[in-house]
Design goal:
Radius of gyration: 24 Å
Oligomer: single chain
Strand content: 15-25%
Strand order of the largest sheet: 14-15-16-13-12-17-18
Shape: globular
Length: 494
């Protein structure tokens, strides 16, 4: 753990083994913090905010630090990518892409903060009054990040929080904390003042729970599942702190027949459906786990999709030629198996996958591997269609009309992301406008831009990350009203 500039063990001496999901071997041993460690970290962040130099550091200097961090991330790109691959199970190439995306986030917020104006002048209707709205840092931020994209999700919180002048306590997932540990080292190397950045490793309860309720925390930002996010919001309510929640998704990928009217478009739509569902073994909150396809092309499309899915090369993410790694844990593997069994019991048709692969040189028998699975003949009554599976499972639903496509796509408790595939630009934009999802892609799946907000509707959360509103989450707005010609005022005649 990193508290007030010092790397230290847990107060109670607890430790946790961090496992490699490819073979269940121990990668590292980290401190297992508790509420006492959390309190110490919050106290350090509180003191650094109330008495330290960081909140008042000029924007140009804060931006300079963020750019130094970005340069250090690129310097350590291969080391971090390898750590991320071994810790999460994703491929080494995915790990490299993550580091590049993290770098882009730090550089984006550096540029954003240094190019901002000093405030917004409000016309008070009098030459004797100067009225201006300014932005100030929120204070101490608690950041709770997930296990699937540990470094990337941390950067979406850390970069804007530092840009705005905040201090923070960061709690990574206890399953995949290693790249976040590396990030804290880079922040210190870049010259961040002592106490601004603090890291507590440990379980959601007690560490995350204590952060959410702590009276010394001004904002809590959580990325993870719906159940845990609900508990965070409830714990934060008594102190009325700011809350940002980026929760789950059950994301539709709507494919119209005209998206398949040429061989080239057909191949593109199928490839993107694979990318939507199976990147990082489907362990992505924005995964396109629901294929909603026009009935007239369903048979050809699903047949080709299943055939290509069955050829995805599974194995240890660091091995050459591997396209998809293991699930992150034994628990996640068991959860995936349970969802597939439930779907088959409810009448779904298995088109491919549905089992653990045979062990090989790149797939140790002790690893948490599961074959990419396509389930046809699905409907909205099935758990596998309604709940976030977070595994390599793709379900298939069909429609005949635009209205039916929209109804299916929007029939979800979540509202994180979705996509529309069509060669008719007007139709694609028309459908995209009707989808109740925070991000909608057209003829693509999964790209994101640091400059664009990321958020969701419904049970996918509240608040925004990335873009100008991502910075706004880590600020308070203050109105400064200045009477330029003060004069005595007598309110009462007596």
């Amino acid at each position: 753990m990193h508290i007030n500039g010092v790397w230290r063990s847990a107060t109670a001496g607890g430790t946790r083994d961090v496992l490699d999901p490819a073979d269940a071997s121990v990668l590292a041993v980290v401190a297992e913090g508790d509420a006492d460690d959390t309190d110490a970290a919050v106290a350090a962040a509180r003191d650094a905010f109330d008495n330290g130099p960081w909140p008042g550091t000029p924007a140009t200097e804060r931006a300079g630090l963020l750019r130094r961090v970005a340069d250090l991330l690129q310097r350590d790109r291969e080391e971090i990518a390898l750590t991320e691959s071994r810790d999460t199970g994703k491929t080494l190439e995915e790990g490299r892409v993550d580091v590049d995306d993290v770098t882009a986030a730090f550089r984006y917020f550096a540029d954003l903060i240094v190019n901002e104006s000093g405030g917004r002048v409000v016309d008070a209707g009098s030459a004797d009054v100067h009225s201006v709205v300014v932005h100030e840092p929120v204070g101490v931020c608690a950041m709770i990040t997930p296990w699937n994209y540990p470094l990337l999700q941390a950067s979406w919180k850390v970069a804007p929080a530092l840009a705005a002048g905040n201090t923070f306590v960061l709690k990574p997932s206890e399953v995949t904390p290693l790249s976040t540990v590396h990030l804290l080292r880079l922040l210190a190397e870049a010259g961040l003042p002592t106490g601004v950045a603090n890291l507590v490793t440990g379980a959601g309860n007690p560490v995350g729970a204590r952060l959410a309720e702590h009276p010394g925390v001004d904002l809590v930002s959580f990325t993870g599942g719906l159940a845990s996010g609900t508990k965070v919001a409830q714990a934060a309510a008594p102190t009325v702190k700011k809350v940002a929640l980026e929760l789950g998704g059950k994301n539709p990928n709507v494919v119209f027949a005209d998206a398949c009217d040429t061989d080239e478009r057909f191949d593109h739509a199928v490839d993107q459906a694979l990318n939507a569902a199976f990147i990082h073994s489907g362990q992505v909150c924005s995964a396109g786990a629901r294929l909603v396809i026009e009935e007239s092309v369903r048979s050809r499309f699903v047949t080709e999709l299943a055939e290509r899915a069955s050829r995805i090369r599974l194995g240890r993410g660091t091995e050459d030629g591997v396209e998809c790694g293991p699930l992150v844990s034994e628990q996640q593997l068991a959860k995936t198996e349970a969802y597939v069994a439930s779907a088959l019991a409810q009448g779904a048709t298995l088109r491919c996958g549905g089992e653990r692969p045979k062990p090989s040189e790149v797939r140790p028998a002790s690893g948490y591997f599961y074959c990419p699975t396509v389930l046809d003949d699905c409907d909205r009554s099935m758990r596998v269609v309604r709940e976030e599976t977070f595994g390599p499972i793709l379900t298939v639903e069909t429609f005949r009309t635009e209205d039916e496509a929209v109804a299916l796509a929007n029939d979800t408790d979540y509202g994180l992301a979705g996509a529309v595939f069509s060669s008719d630009t007007a139709r694609a934009r028309r459908i995209a406008a009707r989808l109740r999802h925070g991000t909608v892609w057209i003829n693509d799946f999964h790209p994101y831009l640091p400059q664009a907000e990321w958020g969701g509707f419904g049970k996918s959360g509240v608040g925004r990350e990335l873009g100008p509103h991502g910075l706004a989450e880590y600020r308070e707005t203050k109105h400064v009203y200045e009477n330029l010609r003060p004069a005595p005022v007598r309110w009462f005649a007596g």
